Amino acid sequence: MSGRPSGTPLGIVLTTVGRDVSRAFDDALSAAGGSLPTWLVLLALKRHPRANQRELAEQVGIQGATLTHHLNAMEAEGLVTRRRDPANRRVHIIELTASGEDAFQRLREAAVTFDRRLRAGLDEAEINGLRQVLAKLQGNVRGPGTSGVVPSACSPGAAAPPPPPEADDAGPGT
């Protein structure tokens, strides 16, 4: 490809679409009584019950201090509990409470409904093609020798393990 690109540069299109999708997903989660950080933590805990804070931060893709801020709020809301690991008192184990389970189910329904909205008018071939194109674009920005992997809802910027059955299709583009 030489010369000027035709049409709006892809970076601007992706940024605009990404911002619109992100805002709409935030609105859907908010209407269900949650937020994206809360959803990501709940989803990670469903995939890996009894995770410690370091593991949880890695799964969610955020820094430990940021996670602590979110966990403080979630603990105050009664969604999670933190306790010291008896084998290593420096480590905190995070677990869902019954209220956390309820919140997970509410936010899961919001996420699944939102995903259906995103997929409206697209067939499986188009969705798979979109995933392939996004993976290529991601690989292009990561640089030579890296492969593009479109992240799951749980792990921005990194591939996540397959979700348990109750967490399938639980985020935008999953």
SSE topology:
Blueprint: H1 10-31, H2 36-47, E1 51-52, H3 53-60, H4 64-76, E2 80-85, E3 88-96, H5 98-119, H6 124-142
Antiparallel strand pairs: 1-3, 2-3
Description of the structure:
- This is Transcriptional regulator SlyA.
- The protein is mainly α and 174 residues long.
- It has a single domain, classed as Arc Repressor Mutant, subunit A (Orthogonal Bundle).
- It is built from six helices and three strands.
- Strands 1-3-2 form a three-stranded antiparallel sheet.
- A hairpin with a 2-residue loop joins strand 2 and strand 3.
- Helix 1 packs across helix 5 and helix 2 crosses helix 5.
- The radius of gyration is 18 Å and the shape is globular.
- The protein starts with 9 loop residues before the first helix and ends in a 32-residue tail after the last helix.
Tag the structure with descriptive keywords.
single chain, 174 residues, Arc Repressor Mutant, subunit A, 6 helices, 3 strands, Transcriptional regulator SlyA, HTH_CRP
| N to C succession of SSEs | HHEHHEEHH
CATH superfamily: Winged helix-like DNA-binding domain superfamily/Winged helix DNA-binding domain
- The CATH class is Mainly Alpha
Tell me how many strands there are.
3
Instruction: Give the overall form.
Output: globular
Lateral arrangement of strands in the main beta sheet: 1-3-2
Report Rg: 18 Å
- The SS-based structural class is mainly alpha
**Count of folded domains:** 1
How would you characterize the largest beta sheet? Answer: 3 strands, antiparallel
CATH topology: Arc Repressor Mutant, subunit A
Portion in strands: 5-15%
Helix content: 55-70%
- Average pLDDT confidence is 85
Name of the CATH architecture: Orthogonal Bundle
- Cα separation of the termini: 31 Å
Specify the number of helices: 6
The low-pLDDT segments are 152-169
